[in-house]
């Protein structure tokens, strides 16, 4: 049996993971969905493991598939370099609402200096996808806010640190203050994250509270926009970051600095086993970006 890997099949798998659906991936590859299905099965038979989790939405890689693609996409990248002098290595970087760290903190500029042949492709993720998308192969790196669902086999580099702020309705008595304390939020319903781990919600809502008072939960949200709507219409408060306070505006919402809360951070997360040149360059660039707080 030949030990050579069919890179056309690897490319088909890569496109499938990027698109998340057989039909859209097939359209991009200009083949039928059934033909793409056969290609993926041939590759799985070749390597002897299931590479794709067909039950996930969007379609993603299995744990074995993720390990396989780290090495297989490196081979594909080098092959493209060999036949195309103008080819640029691409690194897909996931980010969530409010902060990307790419332009804001010079990460993209640092990467351009270190590896000009590497091109960044930003990919927006939901709060619950920060690490999952990395493990499933949808992104090559994630600019993620802890606490994470898992840190196993993940390389983490802190790239940003900032104060936490709180969004309150403009009619709230706290809206006129420059700084509020966590204790002043006791008894006011706070928005939590929907479809995210309990540790994430508890960290961002500061549960348990230093005072010992039970946290009162209000709306459960998926986006910053949903949170602002809950603050404006339901009188909830939303504990967030200085980046969000700087970027988002709402006629009936005021942002106030939360003076005694632990700072929040952003980390560049990559698979520890990933040694591709563009990932090594991205890590090196991240280490040159010194985390510094933002007081908005």
Record keyword descriptors for this entry.
single chain; 296 residues; alpha/beta; Arc Repressor Mutant, subunit A; five-stranded mixed β-sheet; 10 helices; 36% helix; elongated
Give structural notes.
It is a single chain. This protein has helices at residues 7-19, 22-29, 33-47, 63-83, 107-114, 132-135, 198-205, 224-234, 242-247, 277-288, and strands at 52-53, 60-61, 89-95, 118-124, 141-144, 154-162, 164-169, 179-180, 190-193, 217-221, 238-241, 253-258, 264-271. Helix 1 (7-19) packs across helix 2 (22-29), helix 1 crosses helix 3 (33-47) and helix 5 packs across helix 10. 38% of the residues are buried. Helix 7 links the parallel strand 9 (190-193) and strand 10 (217-221). With 296 residues, the protein is of the alpha/beta class. The strands form 4 sheets. Strands 4-3-5-13-6 form a 5-stranded mixed β-sheet. A 4-stranded mixed β-sheet has the order 8-12-7-11. The protein has a two-stranded antiparallel ribbon with strand order 1-2. The chain starts with 6 loop residues before the first helix and ends in an 8-residue tail after the last helix. The chain has 3 domains: 1-71, Winged helix-like DNA-binding domain superfamily/Winged helix DNA-binding domain (Arc Repressor Mutant, subunit A, Orthogonal Bundle), CATH 1.10.10; 88-161 and 263-296, D-Maltodextrin-Binding Protein, domain 2; 164-262, D-Maltodextrin-Binding Protein, domain 2 (3-Layer(aba) Sandwich), CATH 3.40.190.10. The mean pLDDT is 89.
């Amino acid at each position: 049996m030949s030990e050579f890997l069919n890179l056309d099949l690897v490319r088909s798998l890569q496109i499938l993971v990027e698109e998340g659906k057989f039909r859209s991936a097939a359209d991009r590859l200009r083949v039928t969905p059934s033909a793409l299905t056969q290609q993926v099965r041939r590759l799985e038979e070749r390597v002897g493991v299931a590479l794709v989790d067909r039950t996930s939405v969007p379609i993603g890689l299995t744990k074995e598939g993720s390990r396989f693609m780290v090495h297989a996409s490196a081979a594909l990248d080098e092959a493209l370099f060999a036949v195309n002098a103008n080819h640029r290595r691409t690194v897909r970087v996931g980010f969530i609402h409010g902060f990307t760290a790419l332009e804001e903190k010079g990460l993209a500029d640092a990467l351009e200096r270190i590896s000009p042949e590497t091109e960044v492709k930003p990919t927006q993720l939901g709060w619950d996808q920060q690490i999952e998308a990395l493990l499933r192969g949808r992104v090559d790196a994630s600019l993620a806010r802890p606490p994470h669902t898992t840190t196993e086999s993940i390389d983490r580099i802190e790239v940003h640190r900032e104060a936490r702020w709180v969004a309150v309705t403009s009619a709230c008595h706290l809206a006129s203050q420059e700084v509020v304390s966590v204790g002043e939020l006791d008894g006011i319903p706070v928005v939590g994250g929907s479809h995210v781990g309990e540790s994430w919600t508890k960290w961002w809502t500061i549960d348990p509270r230093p005072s010992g008072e039970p946290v009162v939960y209000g709306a459960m949200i998926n986006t910053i926009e949903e949170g602002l709507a809950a603050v404006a219409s339901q009188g909830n408060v939303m504990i967030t970051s200085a980046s969000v306070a700087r970027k988002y505006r709402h006629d009936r919402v005021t942002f106030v600095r939360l003076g005694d809360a632990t700072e929040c951070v952003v980390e560049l997360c990559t698979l520890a086993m990933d040694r591709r040149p563009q990932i090594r360059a991205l890590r090196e660039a991240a280490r040159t970006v010194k985390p510094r707080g933002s007081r908005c």
